[in-house]
Amino acid sequence: LEPRFGSPGDLKALSEGLASRDIALYLDVVTNHVAYDSPLVTEHPDWFHGLGDIEDWQDRAQVLDHDVHGLPDLNQAHPEVQEWLGAAGEHWIETARVQGFRLDAVRHVPQEFWRSYTERMRRAGGEDFVLLGEMFDGDPAVVAAAQRDGGFSGMFDFPLYYALVDVFCREADPGRLASV
């Protein structure tokens, strides 16, 4: 929790206030990487791939195991990393009584991890707990497969975003919208 934005007590009060107004609270959760200056990098160096930045964004191995713009890339195959991420998610479900998570950088985390993580979060948060994935990809089939295989409730619609930009900003044929 970023201290500049409030304390755990403030978050709990926000959650309770929103719930009294029938408004859901989702937290932004990042499982791919940590901040540049995170103490975890020195406390648990074996938790990270340490392979440097992604240079070839078409290389699946680099997309999964290299740093995104220098952010230290967690190794989700490491059992301690899996447990740490799962326990952190459960903590925020219990502490803040949130209704869902917006899950960052889906394409940079192995699908095997996602299936296990989403199942664990649903056990903690209930069957209606929302797990919204952010996968910055323009291919509807790729995004749909990630949603299905990873166990997400839904995904951001980047394929439609790209189509809208193409049609309204780059003069593409409006049929592109229908094709997406």
Mind explaining what this structure looks like?
- With 180 residues, the chain is of the alpha/beta class.
- It is 47% helix and 9% strand.
- Helix 4 runs parallel beside helix 5 (111-125).
- It has a four-stranded parallel sheet with strand order 1-2-3-4, covered by helices on one side.
- It is globular.
- The protein is built from eight helices and four strands.
- The protein has helices at 8-20, 40-43, 60-65, 79-96, 111-125, 140-150, 158-169, 175-179, and strands spanning 26-30, 100-104, 130-133, 154-155.
- The mean pLDDT is 96.
- The termini are far apart.
- Helix amount, in percent? 40-55%
Distance between the termini: 37 Å
What's the main sheet like?
4 strands, parallel
How large, in whole angstroms, is the Cα Rg? 18 Å
Task: Present the secondary structure layout.
Layout: H1 8-20, E1 26-30, H2 40-43, H3 60-65, H4 79-96, E2 100-104, H5 111-125, E3 130-133, H6 140-150, E4 154-155, H7 158-169, H8 175-179
Parallel strand pairs: 1-2, 2-3, 3-4
